[in-house]
Design a protein that fits this description.
Layout: H1 2-32, H2 44-53, H3 60-81, E1 87-90, E2 97-100, H4 102-114, E3 119-126, E4 130-138, H5 143-159, E5 167-175
Parallel strand pairs: 4-5
Antiparallel strand pairs: 1-2, 3-4
Protein name: DUF6286 domain-containing protein
Organism: Pseudonocardia alaniniphila
Pfam families: DUF6286 (PF19803)
Length: 179
């Protein structure tokens, strides 16, 4: 979602920059060519009489207005949904708020999981409500290894002053090869 917001920001910024360049060109052309009634790039003198004769009740105007309003609401919705998530921590006092990024918690969990015996690598995804660990074990994964990894993650979460404890899911896959 954040990538979509960045792309939309880039497109809107480019459109605004192009409109600004066109306005500057037209203003400078109007200053330099005082007796010419047409625009240099944009034929706005031809559009002006048509726009003045168009009523608010005519066919294209309400459709354009509704389309612009819907587009604005969609952009507002994308902006609100793309907010940065954070994980709330219990501060040292009730009036102090502490937060951390999910990336920080993911690195802590990943370091703890990779420190487990028989674990080759681990991929950790963290959100405020869920911690997901995909670990790769050397050779055949021991059925108890999943429980060991889960216990290590739970132990780490117990050590942290998390305001709301996320759910933990662990998947251990087998990695073929030698140590």
């Amino acid at each position: 979602m954040r990538m979509l917001l960045r792309l939309l920001g880039l497109l809107i910024g480019l459109c605004m920059a192009a409109a600004g360049v066109l306005i500057v060109i037209e203003v400078i052309a109007a200053w330099l060519r005082r007796n010419v009634v047409t625009g240099l790039v944009v034929p706005w003198h031809l559009w002006r009489p048509q726009v003045e004769m168009t009523s608010w009740n005519e066919a294209p105007v309400p459709g354009i207005a509704i389309s612009v309003a819907v587009l604005g609401l969609l952009l507002l919705l994308v902006g609100l949904l793309a907010r940065r998530s954070h994980i709330n921590l219990d501060g040292p006092a009730p009036e102090i708020t502490a937060v951390t990024a999910p990336r920080v918690l993911a690195r802590l969990v990943g370091t703890r999981v990779r420190g487990t015996d028989d674990i080759f690598s681990a991929s950790v995804t963290v959100s405020p409500r869920h911690v997901s660990v995909i670990a790769q074990a050397w050779g055949a994964a021991d059925p108890e290894l999943r429980d060991v990894v889960r216990a290590r993650v739970e132990e780490l979460l117990d050590e942290l002053p998390l305001h709301r404890r996320p759910r933990v899911s662990v998947l251990v896959q087998e990695r073929q090869g030698t140590r």
